[in-house]
Write a structure and sequence with these properties.
By secondary structure, the chain is of the alpha+beta class. It has one domain. The protein contains 2 helices and 3 strands. It is elongated, with a radius of gyration of 15 Å.
Length: 102
């Protein structure tokens, strides 16, 4: 089950469970759409993978015991451990390689 992290790891924008602009990589690194598109150019600064929209977890039980009520979103905020210069180098070196070919 996805962790549903609460913030963009780059700009610290709040990304609640219902956020339509949350993006994740295959390791669940979480960023807002603006950071992914404008700054990161679809290159995760942590793993160099690509991003997809984060799914929305149902707020109400449509199946017994399956919803945000039972599987809560994470409250642990995260931030990048890389400098902007390091991120720019990796992004520039990777952005023209399709995610499936990285």
């Amino acid at each position: 089950m996805l962790e549903l992290r609460p913030n963009c790891e780059m700009c610290d924008k709040d990304l609640p469970p219902h956020a339509l602009d949350a993006r994740i990589c295959s390791y669940e690194c979480t960023f807002c759409a603006v950071c992914v598109d404008v700054v990161l150019k679809n290159v995760c600064p942590n793993c160099a993978g690509g991003f997809v929209p984060r799914p929305i977890r149902p707020q109400q039980d449509r199946r017994t015991g399956v919803s945000l009520k039972h599987q809560k979103a994470s409250t642990k905020r995260r931030s990048l451990k890389y400098s902007l210069e390091d991120i720019a180098r990796q992004t520039d070196a990777t952005k023209d390689i399709a995610p499936q070919d990285r």
